[in-house]
Amino acid sequence: APLDHTAYLRLALTEARKSPPKATNFCVGAVLVDEERNEVLATGYTLELPGNTHAEQCCLMKFAQTRGVSEDSVGDILPKSTVIYTTMEPCVFRLSGNAPCVDRIIQTQLGGHEGIRIVYLGVKEPEKFVGENEGRSKLQAAGVKSIHVPGLEDEILQVATAGHAKD
Ligand SMILES: Nc1nc(=O)c(N)c(NC[C@H](O)[C@H](O)[C@H](O)COP(=O)(O)O)[nH]1
Ligand SMILES: [Zn+2]
């Protein structure tokens, strides 16, 4: 069956719903997918793993763990047709100072690996914490395509801002 992008984004949204609401971040969900085999490699949601983690970061950490390698070298073991679905575009700057997910995604290409080739995203990051998220152009410059999968924006933003004061 042809890859159903909305179905994978919906799966990422299911993950996002598991994230504990917090005023200083967004509740995001992500799914790492082997596009050729149409197979889920890992799922993740904000704060799933300890260390103030992001959804995309958790996918990479979890997949690395299943293969017994460090997150930094996850690019060595990713299938060549790996893509990532994330309810919100990857961060390019984090108020906590932790490494942004755009950098973690680009790092998967180190060592001549294809790494993550496409980021499918549900919404752009709202300019609440870090202003305009220039992540998509940074990904583009590294040869990583960003593709917006429309249709779930309202639900995604409602879940993402669950921990924020209602204005
Ligand atoms: N794509 C994405 N996935 C996530 O899992 C997540 N939490 C964010 N959120 C982006 C937002 O800009 C940062 O959450 C704040 O900048 C605070 O930074 P920390 O999260 O504390 O490192 N964005
Ligand atoms: Zn991030």
What summary fits the major beta sheet?
5 strands, mixed
Helix content class: 25-40%
Structural class: alpha/beta
Ligands, deduplicated: the ligand Nc1nc(=O)c(N)c(NC[C@H](O)[C@H](O)[C@H](O)COP(=O)(O)O)[nH]1, zinc ion
The SSE string, one letter per element, is HEEHEHEHEH
**Beta-strand fraction estimate:** 15-25%
| Record field, number of beta strands | 5
Task: Calculate Rg over CA atoms.
Answer: 15 Å
In whole angstroms, the N-to-C terminal distance is 43 Å
Low-confidence stretches: none
Could you explain the architecture of this structure?
The protein has 167 residues and is an alpha/beta fold. The chain is 28% helix and 18% strand. The chain contains 5 helices and 5 strands, in the order αββαβαβαβα. Strands 2-1-3-4-5 form a 5-stranded mixed sheet, with helices on both faces. The relative contact order is 0.19. The mean pLDDT is 95. Bound molecules: ligand HJL and zinc ion (ZN). Zinc ion binds next to loops.
Keywords summarizing the entry:
five-stranded mixed sheet; 167 residues; binds ligand HJL
In short:
The protein is α/β, with parallel strands linked by helices. The protein contains 5 helices and 5 strands; from the N terminus they run αββαβαβαβα.
Helix-strand layout with pairing:
Elements: H1 5-16, E1 29-34, E2 39-45, H2 55-66, E3 82-88, H3 101-107, E4 118-123, H4 135-141, E5 145-148, H5 153-160
Parallel strand pairs: 3-4, 4-5
Antiparallel strand pairs: 1-2, 1-3
